[in-house]
Amino acid sequence: GAGVSQSPSNKVTEKGKDVELRCDPISGHTALYWYRQSLGQGLEFLIYFQGNSAPDKSGLPSDRFSAERTGGSVSTLTIQRTQQEDSAVYLCASSTRVGTLRETQYFGPGTRLLVL
Amino acid sequence: AQKITQTQPGMFVQEKEAVTLDCTYDTSDQSYGLFWYKQPSSGEMIFLIYQGSYDEQNATEGRYSLNFQKARKSANLVISASQLGDSAMYFCAMREVNTGNQFYFGTGTSLTVIP
Fold first, then answer.
1. Which residue of A101, A102, A104, A112 is the best one to mutate when testing the B interface, meaning the one whose CB has the most B CBs within 10 A?
2. Could you tell me how many CB contacts below 8 A there are between chain A and chain B?
3. B56, HSE (Cβ side, Cα atoms, 13 Å)
4. Strands (DSSP E) along A1-116, which ranges?
5. pLDDT tens for chain B, residues 1 to 115
């Protein structure tokens, strides 16, 4: 498809387990963002990739969170030793017109993570 | 302080009527961009409209317009001729030139269109 895709759409895991969330951005989009949306809240910035530059990890809440982007395309967000407070929707976005204020982000449908 | 404030957790509007969703922002930058996104129950965020801080005209995109009042630091979204499909969460967001990659989002307003 032409849009941003994310997998899995839903993930239920047990506390302490590791999870991997995947994002496939729109082809040709060099920028990729990860956000977390907790119930009833706005979006919380996690990490940003732009081309081959070092990622901006300033939003990652703890060292249990990490992300990588292979070949400038697919990205994986990894949460180690999951905690119940990690339960949220994780949204990925890719963008065009990078470097301008009018950068339009295109979002995926999100992964709903539930940590039991 | 919150960068983006949306004070209306929920709003109702009659079909075919207009509705205004409030958004105020906090920044000391002179150059910034303001965005509105729609999030239907499916969860996907959909870009609606953009307003640059130096834009003299209020932005319009079809039935969406942005009532930009720079001195009051407000960027309210106006939806005209509401449709049932407009029922969704609406998020206001801001990007500042000096904080680079960060987009700051508000907590959202849930809009319900009543037939």
1. A101
2. 60
3. 0
4. 5-7, 10-13, 19-24, 31-37, 43-50, 65-69, 75-79, 88-96, 104-107, 111-115
5. 689 999 999 999 999 999 999 999 999 999 999 999 999 988 889 999 999 999 989 999 999 999 999 999 999 999 999 999 999 999 999 998 877 677 899 999 999 999 9
Q: What angle do CA A4, A11, A7 make, to 5 degrees?
A: 20
HSE of B110, CA atoms in CB hemisphere, 13 A: 7
Q: Please check whether residue A65 is in contact with residue A78, taking contact to mean a CB–CB distance below 8 angstroms.
A: yes
- Quick count: other Cβ atoms within 10 Å of Cβ A98? 13
- Structure token pair of residue A72: 């400038």
∠ CA(A99), CA(A102), CA(A107), 5° rounding? 90
Q: Which residues pair with B104 in a beta bridge?
A: B94
Q: Which of A101, A104, A107 sits opposite B32 (nearest CB)?
A: A101
Using CA coordinates, name the residue in chain B closest to A9.
B43
